[in-house]
Amino acid sequence: MADNSATRYLPLYNAALHGDWITAKRIFDSDSNALTAKILGLHETALHVSISAGHSIEFVKKLVDRILPQERDSSNDTPLHRAAAYAHKETVQYLLLATKDEDPSPFAKRWCQTSQFADHCRFL
Asked: Which SUPFAM superfamilies match (predicted)?
């Protein structure tokens, strides 16, 4: 049977895209798998979508209160990768701060030291 998460989580995608926490929270409260569900073709989580849209740091914060932001999309990007790629400095700083006590950090410093990602870390 084909994966129907793309259509199943379309309301979540729209909520994340527009920073609509009320709708997203209702979805999360009724389906705990929605927190880390891969939605649409890029297999993004709601956190990836919200960060890419760049509308609401509050939405991101509320999501990070519920999950560790380490899920990867189809490009193998974490939410931090996405925030850095879109130059969302406040989000990058928040994600780093929110996970500073994780051992090991999902965003270990070695990530910023690789040539592939060094440009994304220049504003930290």
From this structure: Ankyrin repeat (SSF48403)
pLDDT at 3 over 90: no
**CA nearest neighbour of 84 among 55, 102, 111:** 111
CA distance 50 to 57: 8
CA distance 22 to 44: 20
Instruction: Give the CATH number of the domain where residue 117 resides.
Output: 1.25.40.20
Distance between first and last Cα of the chain:
44
Query: pTM of the predicted model, to two decimals?
Result: 0.76
Q: pLDDT tens digit string along 91-109?
A: 998 888 887 666 555 555 4
